[in-house]
Amino acid sequence: MLVTSKAILEASLRAHKEGRPFAVGAYNVNNMEQMQGIITAAQETKSPVIVQVSRGALKYAQDKYLINIINAAVELAPEIPVAIHLDHGNSMDAIKRAIDLGFTSVMIDGSLMEDSKTPSDFEYNVKITSEVVKYAHDRGVSVEGELGTLGGIEDGVGSGKTQLTDPDQAVEFVERTGVDALAISIGTSHGAYKFKGEPKIAFAIIEKTRQLLPDTYLVSHGSSSVPEEHLALINQYGGRMEAAKGVPLEALKKAIQYGINKINVDTDIRLAATGAVRKFLAENPEAFDPRAYLKASRAAIADEIKKRMEAFGTAGQAAAVPQWGLEEMKTAYKRN
Ligand SMILES: [Zn+2]
Predict the structure, then answer these.
(1) How confident is the model at residue 150 (pLDDT cuts 50, 70, 90)?
(2) Which of 40-49, 144-153, 202-211, 307-316 has the lowest mean pLDDT?
(3) Annotated catalytic sites, by residue?
């Protein structure tokens, strides 16, 4: 069932308010096997899911391929609430294109200028985010903004500099823009190489922001765990990845307790897929059918995502999601 991300995140927010918090993972999709792995995990755990498309994905696969692959999953899994989300939209044109294609949710990353590398100022962020909110809400589409900048670089997104979110400024930002969801910078970072030592998550910032903004959905980007077993598997079968540290699942669980509703995961899917393909090809040197090793990657992706759906508490929550599609939200936004 196709829904807006507001529908899925509202289920998470209600659960937080009732003292049994869970968060929803947003998983990046670049090809058919990733989409199949994601939807299989959602079906096997009865989880709602946000599927997100980055600019890198659009460049790799073209938007028409991606939207049709995602829509096929929606059609084949009618019992699973699925939101189609644009990750790190950087311009009004990108937003319009995504909405025309049928995305039900968009992110406008106004923390960076349109080149997606230069940090922006607060007023630019407010202006572009407000414009996107007006355009998207008129069409029933929910909007995620970002305040503060994340370290790390992935798919060419990011300045590499970290600036943690100021909770008081977050209140002003949400009031002036009307965003549904807000990505906050809490010390996480994009990519596989996040931390030199132990990761430090600013739980106090989550707690304060949650207190000040009880009705805004809070998002954690750059939240892959970079599991050691995947790095080991990749290196065991001919890879050469340096030691890397992500955000441990335990830290993410704690972040959920403090108020996070949406957790973005991309790198972990890549690592799981690569480890499985390397292992398969090393063990089957005579194999030359792409279906054989892509099947291995698809299964590894599904396993990896299932672990997250269970850890984030999303498992079993599919039925808790209100059926808010674009039409319902168009009316609801108009009323406000
Ligand atoms: Zn991100």
Answers:
(1) confident
(2) 144-153
(3) 87
- The helix (H) or strand (E) run that includes residue 83 is strand 82-89
CA torsion sign for 214, 217, 222, 225 is positive
Query: What's the sign of the alpha-carbon dihedral 76, 80, 84, 88?
Result: negative
d(CA 227, CA 271): 8
Domains in the chain (CATH in brackets) are: 5-331 (3.20.20.70)
Predicted confidence at residue 155, as pLDDT, reads 60
Whether 154 has a pLDDT exceeding 70, the answer reads no
- What's the chain's length in residues? 336
- Secondary element (H or E) of residue 101: helix 92-101
What pLDDT, on a 0 to 100 scale, did the predictor assign at position 245? 87
Distance CA 163, CA 297 (A): 35
Nearest to 164 by CA among 137, 179, 146, 176: 146
Distance between CA atoms of residues 84 and 70, nearest Å: 8
Q: How far is the CA of 223 from the centre of ligand 1 (A)?
A: 9
For residue 58, the CA-to-ligand 1 centroid distance in Å is: 15
Beta bridge partners of 264: 26
What is the C-alpha to C-alpha distance for residues 183 and 254, in angstroms, rounded to an integer?
Answer: 17
C-alpha distance from residue 175 to each of 9, 168, 172, 260 (Å)? 19, 11, 5, 19
The sign of the dihedral angle between the CA atoms of 319, 322, 327, 330 is: negative
Torsion of CA 312, 56, 102, 268, to 10 degrees: -20
Ligand 1 centre distance from Cα of residue 190 (Å): 6
Query: If you measure from the C-alpha of residue 198 to the centroid of ligand 1, how many angstroms do you get, rounded to a whole number?
Result: 21
Strands 217-220 and 262-265: parallel
**E-state strands within 140-232:** 142-147, 181-184, 217-220
